[in-house]
Amino acid sequence: MRVCALLALALLCGAGGPAAGCVFCGPTETNIRTRVELLCLRYLESHRPQDCSRYSAVRHLQPFALAQARVDQLTEGVDRVLRELESNGSTELLPRYWDWLFEAQLPQFTQEALCPPQCRGVGTAVNCSSCRSERVPCWSYTRCFPGRMSLAQCLQWAVFTGLALILIGLLFCVIE
Known about the structure:
Number of helices: 6
Shape: elongated
Number of strands: 3
Distance between the termini: 87 Å
Helix content: 55-70%
Low-confidence stretches: 1-20
Largest sheet: 3 strands, antiparallel
Order of helices and strands: HHEHHEEHH
């Protein structure tokens, strides 16, 4: 069980490669990596699951890229939550919080960084798997806002509708 816990912990914290996650890309004085390791170990010892989270593998960090201000905000928020968990001595909420972070917060921050109006063409964002600021291509409008039409689609629809109305008008003129 001890080896399994250490392996899960290594995957959670991105050991064994350059991946670290945006959570660990902030200021080093908060020491989030070590604190998460300790909380995860305590959780694994007391609850005996396989992992601390559904998102403990390094591959879950790859799709995220955030603006530097969001990385700082994220680090500050995680630091506050970890302080609360440490002061209570409770690790039961760690998996739920970590899952929420990957399911809600990181996708939202990524969308803000890579979607219009924040990003046009190419933007600069912190790559969560390398912790480096890089120029990344912005996402398309349809990827950012599924179900909505892009400007090109709106123009096509307007032109098609306009032509259809003109043809109907000509048809009525011919009939009369």
